[in-house]
Amino acid sequence: MADTHTPVRWQSRRAFILAVTGAAVGLGNIWRFPYITGENGGSAFLLQYVAFIVLLGLPVMMAEIMIGRTGRAGPLAALTQLARDNGRSRQWSKLAVFGGLTLFLILSFYAVVSGWSLAYLGKSINGDFVGLAAADVGAQFNGFLQDLPLMLGCHLAFLLMTMLVVARGVSAGLEKLNNLLMPLLYLLLLLLAGFAATTPGFGEALHWLFWPNPEALSWQATLDAMGHAFFTLAVGACALMAYGAYMPEEQSLPRAAVAVAVLDVVVALLAGIAIFAVVFSHGMEPAGGPGLMFVTLPVAFAEVPGGSLWLSAFFVLLVLATWTSSINLAEPLVAMLVDKQWPRPLAAAVVGGCVWMLGVLAALSFSLLSDWHPLGFIAVFDGKTLFDLLTSIPPDLFLPLGGLFIAWFAARGLTTEQIETALGSAFMARLWRVVVMWVSIPMLLAVLLITLYRW
Hints:
By secondary structure, this protein is mainly alpha-helical. It has a single domain, classed as Amino acid/polyamine transporter I (Up-down Bundle). Helices cover 75% and strands 0% of the residues. The protein has helices at 13-24, 27-39, 43-71, 75-85, 94-125, 134-146, 148-167, 170-196, 202-210, 219-233, 239-245, 253-281, 292-302, 307-338, 344-363, 386-390, 393-413, 416-423, 426-454. The longest helix has 32 residues, at 94-125.
């Protein structure tokens, strides 16, 4: 198929894996995984999460990359072209629009929380948490949420960091930054996990995370585990189609997808071990909610030798992870506009500006808009602010729903020859199709239907 939309490629197989891992590794692994694991009983959540990664996340990731690699274009152009060439309905192009909406909603709260990490990096370097009691650290976090100039300024600064890189394009922006920052991120995380191994709560953290705890099983834990499997792999919003379009011809798609999934799970586990070892060392509550990192960890690290240094290193890690992830999540939105002949700098500016405006409303959920409940007329969403809705509906519902349609289109909309070419062999193509059609899609449908019924 002629490469008319995407003349660029990742310069190496390593660059592609780092790029997709950069899209996957971020707030989902280091911020969201620990706090929803804490809220859902530790191992009761973790085991389901890993199962969903293997049975749902990995097959759908391969489907998403496959579509981009076959179409050699951004999500909208690839779906439109493949549907036309293979005699499928042109309505499939709307899947890219739905994916773009999902990415837009996720990126809007992503940039807000990433702005928090910028602010807390500065606070930790300045030693603002030294000698503070837990109540004082909590009050400081609440005060930060009310400090609109600081919070909105950090939100804007983070988006500028993101969109300036995206505006430079693949090889000049994304690839160079991923090659530099992702290895540094892994190094910092290993250092923090090594530090956690020296704490008295290390054994308790391992037991809580890995020892089976069937009493803690719940339907909410199952839903959270499925949604998080998609969120943490950046799957279900057509984001990885853009990276498949840039994938080198000689690269093995199955091997690359497995490598990314393994790295993603390892990062989440290391982050969880590092956080919960410190939390348990000081007798704190693991179910600390979204503020787990920003309230609990400053208190915990303040009580250990060199705590300010370790806390600063942790927030450096968080900033790097969220930066690379937000860059890689913004790229598909920009790519869809570039496919429509927009200049890349203009596309990046428009996407960044729109994300910033919605993010401002989300940030105000903690102050001026705390009493605004946009979907309060629906019982299950009553009392939820805009920030609550953005951090739950897109990851837990939109991503699995998008993944369902992506998997169906790849399995039924692509030809057997296209699937075999993408996966490298007829055997891999048959195996992947069987798993997707008889495991992934039925499981996705079942969980989504039961969730909607419960709502």
